[in-house]
Amino acid sequence: MNDAGADAPGGGAGHHAGEGSSGPHRRRERYRGTHPRNFSERYKELGAAPDSEIHAHIRAQGRTPAGTHRPVMVDEVLAALKPQGGHVVADCTLGFGGHAELLLSRIGPGGRLLGLDIDETTISATQARLTALGFGELLAVRRSNFAGLAKFIGEPLWSGERAAVEGFNLIFADLGVSSMQIDNPQRGFSYKHDGPLDMRMDQRIRRTAAEWLAKLSEAELIETLREFGDEPAAEAIAGRIVLRRQRAPLRTTRDLVRCVEEAVGARGAGGRSVEASPDDEAVERTKRESHPATRTFQALRMLVNDEMGALAAFLRGLPFVLRAGGRAAILTFHSGEAKMVARALEVGIAQGVYAAISEEGIAPTAAEVRDNPRSRSARLWWAVKQ
User: Fold this and answer.
1) In CATH terms, are 74-178+308-385 and 206-294 the same topology?
2) What pLDDT score was predicted for residue 270?
3) Who's near 152: CB < 8 A, 6+ residues apart?
4) What is the C-alpha to C-alpha distance for residues 134 and 129, in angstroms, rounded to an integer?
5) CA 208 and chain centroid, separation
6) Sign of the torsion formed by the C-alpha atoms of 335, 260, 188 and 61
7) Which of 102, 110, 120, 331 is paired with 208 by a 20 to 30 Å CA distance?
8) Residue 1 pLDDT exceeds 60
9) The domain 206-294 is classified under which CATH number: 1.10.150, 3.30.70, 1.20.1530, 1.10.530?
């Protein structure tokens, strides 16, 4: 077991120099106070195994250990997809492979799974993890946006096989952001950690969040915050951003957080200061205590990555890559996504494309929301091809 999980609370223990060590023992830097506030200081979590005591302790508090991701609504996804041996599956948002691992365990030995993801920082690690679990022969991984699933039809994807993919029995898409992306301050997705205002899921995307904020007019900012963030204070926040960038560009997540706090106050909907708790993740435990910058960060992330455009393309192509009798499941985390998915499924069943659909989004259980607050806005939608 990695000894990072056994260090003293102040982080002073570190790794002991073992046989063949060429240098002196280096002690980890201590963080100020009783709780680590920066991502890099959470080394006890980052180095620990998923089944370690420190991870169990953090999950018992309703938090997600730094650097990990918990798949959402696992039982509901499996019930909607009904994976069986021999199925050909597309996991269009592979991430750390939490859902893929469970699907792979149910479709072998004759099944196959194609995993797509656009984040180069996680895709190779996920492939290595799933291969180490014994799923290598069943798995093919490609770096691609889920909107491009159709381009893999007609291609041989799995090692040693010449047969081309003719369609998928099961298709799954999780539209949420990975906890590992959110937790890493260098990615710029979260208001909780100071870092560059980036927000690109795919580093090939040309424009960062900082560049978008420098370019958008006040009217465009208002529209973005309303459409992608359902932000009631869109005008106040957009106005403050425009005033702030006249003095200096917004370059970091802290710059953006300060703009929002100046516009609407540094308190969440529950009236509690977001700086009041030594535990930054405590603000995520309930809607009542949500951070005032949450909606702004969500809206900007969706704009940077053209998430709604990608979803529209995926939904248009879905009937053409799903085999007859095949099943699709989609997890949404935003009202705009939910409306788009619901409308596409309704049109599909009206046109005879789908034999059955979910009439409304399935919400996570109260127990899951309590154990994993990041699941609270999730809604699961499913469809069965005619």
Assistant:
1) no
2) 36
3) 90, 114, 142, 144, 165
4) 9
5) 18
6) negative
7) 331
8) no
9) 1.10.150
Question: What's the Cα-to-Cα distance from 85 to each of 112, 115, 135, 354, rounded to whole Å?
Answer: 9, 18, 14, 23
pLDDT greater at residue 5 or residue 44 = 44
Q: DSSP string covering 205-247, please?
A: -S--HHHHHHH--HHHHHHHHHHHH--TTHHHHHHHHHHHHHH
Position 73 scores a pLDDT of 97
DSSP annotation of 352 reads T
pLDDT band at 65 (very low <50, low <70, confident <90, very high): low
For residue range 161-201, list pLDDT tens digits in order: 667 888 999 999 999 887 777 778 889 888 988 999 999 99
Domain segments of the chain as ranges: 1-60, 74-178+308-385, 206-294
β-pair partners for 115: 91, 141
Place of tokens 């993740």: 281
What are the pLDDT digits (tens) for 86-108? Answer: 999 999 999 999 999 999 999 98
- For 74-178+308-385, which CATH superfamily applies? Vaccinia Virus protein VP39 (3.40.50.150)
**Whole-angstrom distance, CA of residue 163 vs CA of residue 62:** 46
